[in-house]
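I have been asked to look over a protein record a colleague put together. Alongside the sequence sits a line of tokens, each denoting a local backbone shape. Please read both lines and tell me whether the tokens look consistent with the sequence. I do not need a full report, just your reasoning and any doubts. I have pasted the whole thing underneath without changing anything.
>
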Amino acid sequence: MHAYRSHSCADLNASNVGDTVRLSGWVLRIRDHGGILFVDLRDHYGITQVLCDPDSPVFAEMEKVRSEWCIRIDGNVKARDPELVNAKIPTGEVEVFVRDLEVLGASEELPLIVFGDQEYPEETRLKYRFLDLRREAMQDNMKLRSDVVASMRKRMWGLDFREFQTPIITASSPEGARDFLVPSRLHPGKFYALPQAPQQFKQLLMVSGFDKYFQIAPCFRDEDPRADRSPTDFYQLDLEMSFVSQQDVFDTIQPVLQGVFEEFGGGRKVDSEWPQISYRDAALWYGTDKPDLRNPIKMQDVSEHFRGSGFAIFAKILEQEGTEIRAIPAPTGGSRKFCDRMNAFAQKEGLPGMGYIFWRDQGEGMEAAGPLAKNIGPERTEAIREQLGLGVGDAAFFLGGKAKAFETVAGKARDVIGDDLGLTDKDRFAFAWIVDFPIYEKDEETGEVDFEHNPFSMPQGGMDALLGDPLEVLGYQYDLACNGYEIVSGAIRNHRPEIMFKAFEIAGYGEDEVKKRFGGMVNAFRFGAPPHGGCAAGIDRIVMLLADEQNIREVILFPMNQRAEDLMMDAPSLPTNEQLRELRLRVLPPED
């Protein structure tokens, strides 16, 4: 017999009754029923119940065993009594009577309990991540992650893509976040960078004549942490193609991701229609470029109804250039109690409040209620109601000013309204391509023009577009949103050196600076670069959605905490003096 097991803890069933077997695993829990010890033995594959009574030659040793000890047992498979069958597990028809026992690894007192759903501080969970990962929910999440990656690979190979590995130690890359720098021992004073993405290398692959590339790529960015973002590293399904249009990229990645969500979505509906929404429309309708389309609410500009109205606050706002009044419809939200709740929400977000109107039935017809309705009068109120398509029992909330100042709060308010009123379909994955990103923006204080989004996207209209108003230039850049999260970002690349130099010139970067910062890619584009484009899908975030988790750390094996610290491995750590001398580095003390 094998040294450790003849079967896994998920293998045994009624057909094994009478067999002598060997199992190894961890003690999930022990129950003493009148001198008979019942032990749930767990391994990666499942659970088997084993029992030991005073007739067993190892009963005394089994009494010493505690939760999470790693043990090996030999025993005989017995059928459970019909009324004791556990239909919830594959091995529920049988149990194993223990004849021999070996303790493979005893455990000290546990800092967190593996069995059950007890909540522990994140600090404890991350410090003892190896224990945290033994819990069933975490095992399921990590198996899901592995299966999703395997499915992605299979689907990409099925589309005739080849997988290539790009360098991990490289030069600094223009991805918009901070680099992790790596000092060079052989070149004192110089630094490599960990790649923020394989961006430049995958484009160089297209110049090299490889038509379709993909990679399950590690990416490294020194970013501020969020619930849906790792502060140090993450993985993405990275792909690039030559001789493609924007629509070609969409048509390639949609069946891959749609198939993954259908395969692992647990029966939730997966939308097959993925609308294409311009960046400006997404900001207007949803207050974000990653809208949750499960929520049917669309915001609207209602400025004309308040211009010159009796509501002085909004009327004065609209006298300023670049301002607007936006309405957030709230179907079924027509009660003063709900309106007060949303007002309190706005105040928590740092605003003085939100204006509102709600419509109620007064017996003799519909009446508009709320301070705004009284100030602007019935005619304007009715025009707002008709524009928004609302009726009795509905409400609308209003924010005003320059869009960038209130848009984020408006988007959050839309989400809260959709959730609180039960309008958001939680049992669904809804996707939307966000397109037509502006390439440039103007600094309101300095008046200078700089890049608002990816500077390496091909401008729509090519060189001709760059000869006009830069604030009107749109790029062939796109994101894919799913349930309020950005899960894909990509672009058709600017592969023409003369267009690239002009694009950077508008933002104040001379040709020499572009060559210095991005010399490898610019140099390659001089030698017959094909039109090309691609995208990258965030694996961690996709698995987070599929696992129905709210925090990305729940689907990463060994994540950092919110302060970018690895509590388990004690990183980052101080270098030794010998290491610093070898690298010719000196560390400055931290600022107070």
